[in-house]
Design a protein that fits this description.
Blueprint: E1 3-4, E2 14-16, E3 35-37, E4 45-46, E5 51-53, H1 57-72, E6 89-94, H2 100-111, E7 114-117, H3 118-128, H4 131-141, H5 148-159, H6 162-167, E8 169-172, H7 178-186, E9 193-198, H8 201-209, E10 211-213, E11 220-222, H9 231-236, H10 245-266, E12 270-274, H11 279-316, H12 318-321, E13 325-326, H13 336-355, E14 360-365, H14 379-395, E15 400-403, H15 423-429, E16 442-445, E17 458-462, H16 473-483, E18 488-491, H17 510-517, E19 521-531, E20 538-545, E21 550-554
Parallel strand pairs: 2-21, 3-5, 6-8, 6-9, 7-8, 9-12, 14-18, 14-19, 15-16, 15-17, 17-18
Antiparallel strand pairs: 1-13, 3-19, 4-5, 10-11, 19-20, 20-21
Helix pairs in contact: 2-11, 3-4, 3-5, 5-7, 7-10, 8-10, 13-14
Organism: Solanum pennellii (Tomato)
Catalytic activity: AMP + ATP = 2 ADP
Enzyme class: transferase
């Protein structure tokens, strides 16, 4: 297979490769152009060859650099145990009187985490008279519960402060509802470990009913487990209004319902601890768990540093060891060898991202047969790529839902993007292998929350896109919310706003749509470079394959 060789350039965030190549490498064109471009790249001088890309590559370089920095920092926070130099992030949950407050104090003393309690936050916001505090006060004054969005806003604001970022955090008794847990998930706020203190109901009820409060000092006693020191103190002790048996049982029931509902969100990192022991015994187990998490992170960090060194060495020799980029992409149809080359390249990057715990991914590949703006676009090539991805996950025992958006709009305006016309029928009639994958491990559906079923493990969305007068974002958002932390992979999405006389995609709400689209991280991107203003001949390519940085290949 003929390949593109690439020139050496000194860019800080983009890896490029040596121009020397043997007879196995054949360039597309022997002329060195003075200008060439892709539709979204710009001007970078190449002193050795006096080649300049047209005016948009500089901007792309900034975007790429930013993408790589963000991927190394922000996105890695959502991993449960990952190779990163970050402090501990802990959630702790427990029923009333489970000893959670005592354990929080001990955890803070030992590990120096920032203790974040929604009760403390709410009191602080009310005392400071902030906007959030005033909104919460309106609900509290009328006896209503403070809405989840207000509580979540308080928590996320506190988590964003420098001390929480530097020292790590201990989130006490939050989230309490599915809506709160899902809000944190959407914001990629996830702990390293989720601790649940487990105490039998009878013990909890006894602890609550036997509690007594000293109104003078605020100190809590218990009639049998922690009696007051003197008769004078005993005489002034009172029972809190919510420590009656009836109210305790009601609170326990509410706690159990909420805890059970949010359990699936954190089941992979949950550690249940027997709380019916002395505080020292309980903390000894918590201490052991948190210390283990810290050690695993340190080991992973060392492994990452070693991997980075190895990767740099590999990339330094890439021009000798790697096959390079196929160059005969102007030949239509593409040969099976070229198509399979890209299918494998995309698959490997996607598998690495999913294995690393990434759940919102997108693939962008614009070789001619996959570029709908070119007259050589072939929907069969796109469907073939989809089947390779789906069958690979199916081979691992996962159930895959391949989703194609349906007709959009109503009446005379009903229709679907031309790029997707007939795609569902093609998928249904394709060869899905000899072992009956279709209907068992691979199913075909539409885009929307109702398409998400319990048995689905992975969702592949085929070129989701907006159309004039219609927006696919709401259907996608419903689907991602329903899917939770299961991987959703977009293949060649087009989620930018389009003009619409109906006002569906005008200024209102645009920031929210763009914010949603930005949730999906690129795990594979391949873009061709051409002469300025043309799509022929191919002069090079820009490629990113997770988790590696962008590579530029030029003639």
């Amino acid at each position: 297979m003929a390949m593109i060789a690439s020139v050496t350039m000194n860019f800080p965030h983009i890896s490029t490769h040596n121009n020397s190549f043997n007879q196995a490498f054949s360039p597309i064109c022997t002329n060195n152009p003075s200008n060439f471009s892709s539709s979204s790249f710009s001007s970078i001088p190449i002193s050795s060859n006096s080649i300049r890309l047209s005016s948009s590559i500089a901007y792309s370089e900034q975007l790429i650099a930013s993408h790589n920095v963000n991927r190394r920092t922000k996105n890695h926070k959502i991993k449960v145990i990952s190779a990163r130099s970050e402090p501990l992030k802990v959630m702790i949950s427990g029923a009333p009187a489970s000893g959670k407050g005592t354990q929080c104090e001990l955890i803070v003393q030992k590990f120096g985490l920032v203790h974040i309690s929604t009760g403390d936050l709410l009191r602080a916001e009310l005392s400071a008279g902030t906007d959030i505090g005033n909104k919460a006060k309106e609900y509290m004054n009328t006896g209503r519960l403070v809405p989840d969005e207000i509580v979540t806003a308080m928590v996320t604001t506190r988590l964003s402060k420098e001390d929480a970022k530097e020292k790590g955090w201990l989130l006490d008794g939050y989230p309490r509802t599915v809506a709160q847990a899902e809000s944190l998930e959407r914001l990629n706020i996830r702990p390293d470990i989720y601790i649940v203190l487990d105490v039998p109901d009878a013990i909890l009820i006894d602890r609550c009913v036997g509690r007594r409060l000293d109104p003078l000092t605020g100190k809590i006693y218990h009639v049998t487990n922690f009696p007051p020191e003197t008769e004078d103190i005993k005489a002034r002790l009172i029972t809190r209004p919510d420590d009656t048996e009836e109210k305790v049982k009601s609170r326990l029931q509410i706690y159990k319902q909420n805890a059970e509902a949010i359990l699936p969100v954190y089941s992979d990192i949950m550690n249940k601890i027997d709380g019916n022991r002395s505080k020292d015994s309980v903390f000894a187990e918590i201490d052991s768990l948190l210390s283990r998490v810290q050690k695993e992170e340190q080991d992973a960090r060392k492994s990452e540093e070693s991997a980075i060194s190895s990767t740099r060495a590999d990339m330094a020799s890439l021009s000798k060891d790697w096959r390079g980029i196929p160059t005969r992409l102007n030949n239509i149809p593409h040969s099976r060898e070229i198509r399979e080359y890209f299918y494998t390249d995309v698959l490997q990057a996607t598998q690495r991202a999913v294995n690393d715990g990434k759940t919102r991914l997108k693939i962008e590949i614009n070789i001619p047969e996959l570029n709908p703006s070119m007259d050589v676009y072939r929907i069969g090539t796109l469907m073939e790529l989809i089947s390779v991805l789906a069958l690979s996950f199916a081979d691992d025992g996962k159930r895959v839902k391949v989703c194609v958006q349906g007709s959009m709009g109503e009446g005379a305006l009903a229709g679907m993007p031309l790029q997707l016309a007939g795609s569902r029928k093609i998928l249904e009639y394709m060869d899905w292998g000899d072992y009956g994958a279709l209907g068992n491990f691979v199913n075909i559906g539409s885009i929307g929350g109702k398409e998400v079923e319990k048995q689905d493990d992975v969702f592949i969305l085929v070129a989701p896109q907006n159309a004039v007068g219609n927006c696919i974002i709401d259907d996608m958002r419903a689907m991602t919310d329903a899917a939770g932390n299961r991987p959703i992979i977009l293949v060649n999405p087009k989620l930018k706003d389009l003009p619409a006389s109906s006002g569906i995609m005008q200024t209102m709400g645009r920031d929210k749509r763009l914010e949603y689209a930005a949730l999906f991280e690129i795990c594979y991107q391949f873009r061709l470079l051409y002469y300025a203003g043309t799509q022929y001949p191919i002069m090079g390519a820009l490629r990113m394959s997770y988790p590696y940085p962008y590579d530029k290949f030029l003639l």
